[in-house]
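User: Can you help me understand a structure? I only have the sequence.
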Amino acid sequence: MKTLLLVLALAVVIPSLVFAQGGASAQNTATFDIGMPLTIDGATQPGVWGDLAPGTTYTITADGYINPPDVNGSTEIASAVLWTITGQTGATVNITFALPPFFTSPTGPNVPYSVNTMSAGWAGTAFTAGSPFNPIDPRVLNSISLIAGEADVQIGGIVNVPLGADGTYTGTFVLTAQYTGL
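Assistant: Let's start by predicting it. Here is the structure, written out as tokens:
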């Protein structure tokens, strides 16, 4: 029995002596992010579609061409409506548009607005008239890629300027974007 008690005492005392001689502990932390927030800069570039003539239907492409030329003879508009979307590099993002049915002016009749399958487009970088871009139909849900964490989306459209139109016309566009997954 004495031997058994001695073995038990040694089993308790020896490990406590070992840990008491050189043990230590310290707390630390690690952090990570789940993806990146998706942001849309809608103030990137409002559309400036030039000087248009009453009684004419104009088609403005996503990259900024206008047909027929505006009243100054230009086939390139000053700027298409532009949004810059930033987020996780390589992510796929679904985008939708809310489009105006017409443009308004305090001094003239409404100007009807419509789109076709080539009215909007996106690219991994900023694009201007003649730049390559991926055409998208702004009437339906579209999926785009954030190349290098960014994509530019631009939209033009079709305006049917009625006779008697006068003044400065404005239309409001809304782009909504949402991650589809990485």
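Now, to help you interpret it: The domain at 39-181 is CATH 2.60.40 (Immunoglobulin-like). Residues 2-22 form the longest helix (21 residues). Let me know which part you'd like to focus on.
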